[in-house]
Amino acid sequence: DPFALPDVGSHNLPLVEGTLYALVWHASTASLDPSRRPMAYGMEESVLRQEQPQIFELLHTEFSALPIATVEQGRLRITLPSRPPRLHAFVGAATPEEVCALTETSDTLHRILTAPAEVPIDALLVACIRQAWQAREQDFSYLVRTGKRLAQLDRKSTRLNSSHTVI
Asked: Which DSSP string do the residues of 94-147 spell out, in sequence order?
């Protein structure tokens, strides 16, 4: 089937239908009032919550992320989700097992290499590979395999190749 979704299988993960996996490439916390700038109080968050609980009502956190995979029909698939995440969806870090499953094939690398122009692909590639390497307990053979995959994908990536000036 030429339209089959890339499927990395279930890897015995506890998959939740509709889960979206994404790589965060920017995060910021700001004041709800655009004329005010948040400042650190120099205390632990738990102490700050006790002494100044209203502060957390005056801040909002935003992040930008590159969607990588989704859980559809009980399978982990490297594809864009069929619909955007829910407005009040929870965000959390992937487990080492999820990271291993998501980085088993070169599909995740390909998604990063073909990301929109505003995504810092170099930094995202490094962070993704580092986290996958650590999830694999610093397996050097993973780095070698990934380096070979990346070299093959780099030649095929239109964004990377188009960013070089040919004279």
From this structure: PPHHHHHHHTSSTHHHHHHHT--TTS-HHHHHHHHHHHHHHHTTS-HHHHHHHH
